[in-house]
Amino acid sequence: MKIVVCIKQVPDTKGGVKFNPDGTLDRAAMLAIMNPDDKAGLEAALRIKDEMGAEVTVLTMGLPKADDVLREAMAMGADKAILVTDRVLGGADTWATSSTIAGALRNIDYDLVITGRQAIDGDTAQVGPQIAEHLNLPVISYAEELKIDGDSVIVKRQYEDRYHELKVKMPCLVTALSELNVPRYMTPGGIFDAYDEKEVTVWGRNDLKDLDDANIGLNGSPTKIAKASDKVRKGAGEKVTLDATESVAYIMGKLKEKHVI
Amino acid sequence: MGLEEYKGVYIYAQQVDNELSSIAFELIGKAKDLAKDLNTDVTAVLLGSNVKGLADQLAEYGADKVIVVDDPALEVYKTEPYAHALSSVINEYKPDIMLVGATAIGRDLGPTVSARVATGLTADCTQLEIGDFPLKAVEGKEQKHNQLLMTRPAFGGNTIATIACPDNRPQMATVRPGVMQKIEPIAGAKAEIIEYNPGFEVNHKYVEILNVIKQAKSAENIMDAKILVSGGRGVGSSENFKILQDLADVLGGMVSCSRAVVENGWKPVDCQVGQTGKTVRPNLYFAIGISGAIQHVAGMEEADIIIAINKDEDAPIFDVADYGIVGDLNKIVPALTAALKEELGK
Questions:
Q1: Are the C-beta atoms of B162 and B133 separated by less than 8 Å?
Q2: What domains are there in chain B, each with its CATH number?
Q3: What digits encode the pLDDT tens for the residues B238-269?
Q4: Taking residues A95-107, what's their average pLDDT?
Q5: Is B311 on the interface with A (CB under 8 A)?
Q6: Which of A126, A161, A261 sits opposite B215 (nearest CB)?
Q7: Which of residues 109-128 of B touch A (CB under 8 A)?
Q8: Given pLDDT bands bounded at 50, 70 and 90, which one contains residue A231?
């Protein structure tokens, strides 16, 4: 069985956020980690590999430095890694990103594609279902549990107040929640192999299949950024240090002033 | 595509178990503002099985038209028949704007449909308005008017971006629940009902539902509360939430909490406010023993009045609070409840 896990190198949001002049993210200027939902998706694939045997390929689209997350994935146990990188792919929105990744997946044999539900930089949750749509695959989003049952997958799909247990035949695409599992650590041997033994395959724009130029990069993105900025928050109001009795009088005064009581 | 063919503001009227979700009414409320600016009307798209009866409710909340796709295939939400239904409606009726709730359903349906009808989709919007793109005229570049400008937070609320979809239609957005205001329903209001069925044929994309497991959910929703008394780690224990409940009771409000409280098992997740919980905008929000991590603030900063009580004078919650009290919640909260009881004659 063949599994492809789509992963994304994301800026660690603790490290501050920087923009290019065109309003897109300046990813090169930020610290980078493997997106948490994607890592859970990778762990799910590796558990299937441990239990029943599978070939796990990790795929990412990004800057050349995204090689780091692919090596990390191989050090965790992924067998193969593909980096899709090309200047013309930059500035892509979710439509252009999913079109591009679909173009890469058309070159690969797979039974199951796993993506994270969403990435911590964009928080859109759109790329997974959009890849499925471009490839005409069934999609199950928000997977809390995932298991293989013959030629099908069985997924516990999370909703706000319930979950559905769903079954669908492979090939299909599943988007993983961080709740799915706790990802394993890299092993020392795995790290050695990932950097010294295993190769990352690099694909440029021309290696992608059935992909129109109109659907890639900044120009192929239907959504355009009009403005991006650090969030302007409401300023701090009053702050007082009072004992309990005075505090109560203070709050009562404000509630009356604002006609709450 | 001829963009001018696309007209009207459409919303996806989400229902679950044949009960309309609050987000449906919130979207109509916002759609009415947008439709007014565009001099057009609001159409709700209602998908389900035996759901026609819900159309009047959508009318009462402001929908001018309701397109109903009523088919047994749509009894329970599944990506494929729903995506087929909504994209067929879009292809048939050609909306200028299509809004979907950023719920666990909408965040699956929205991207699938946007890819199928080949348009852009902006996720989790918190603000929508009609304006020009680019915002300011740039020489040598066409400035388009009457565009949907979609504003959304990213990076865990650290930044906000305003996004347009100038060359594709419909302009699609998912909208965060609890952010847009619904109107006061107008009893007896009627909408034009349009029945439509694109036909459903089972294919390889239809998943099989083996089980539906409903989880316990408190009957009331913190997103509907006008007053929230919210507690954080500083409350100290599950038992001590009693003093917050007493305050909420005297004010006719509800108790909510921060993520730390859920992680400690003191309160269920449906009480959680913040990035990974719910976005609330009550008239009054008490932040009690809540430090005010950015993920929490993202979910409550739109409240009209924020009162924070915390013993740590450097707690970031004071940066967003209208009124901050540095003090001991264990003394202040019960005393406040007592004073309110007396004031309100309870």
A1: no
A2: 3-195 (3.40.50.620), 222-343 (3.40.50.1220)
A3: 999 999 999 999 999 999 999 999 988 999 88
A4: 98
A5: no
A6: A161
A7: 110-112, 114-116, 118-124
A8: low
Q: Distance (Å, rounded) from C-alpha B63 to C-alpha B215?
A: 31
CA nearest to A138 within chain B:
B205
Residues of B in contact with A23 (CB under 8 A): 161
Q: In what order do the strands lie in the sheet with B227-231?
A: A238-241, B323-326, B305-310, B284-288, B227-231, B254-257
- B339·A224 Cβ contact <8 A: no
Instruction: Name the CATH code of domain A2-215 (choices 3.40.50.620, 3.40.50.720, 3.40.50.1820, 3.40.50.2300).
Output: 3.40.50.620
Tell me, what's the pLDDT at A13? 60
Question: In this predicted structure, what is the pLDDT of residue A16?
Answer: 57
Angular region, A184: left φ>0, alpha ψ -120 to 50, beta rest: beta
Check CB contact of B168 with chain A, cutoff 8 Å. Answer: yes
Work out the number of other CB atoms within 10 angstroms of the CB of residue B18.
Answer: 12
Where in chain A are the domains? 2-215
Amino acid letter for position A225: I
Token pair of B277 as six digits: 């919980």
Task: Express each pLDDT in B282-316 by its tens digit.
Answer: 999 999 999 998 889 888 988 889 999 999 999 99
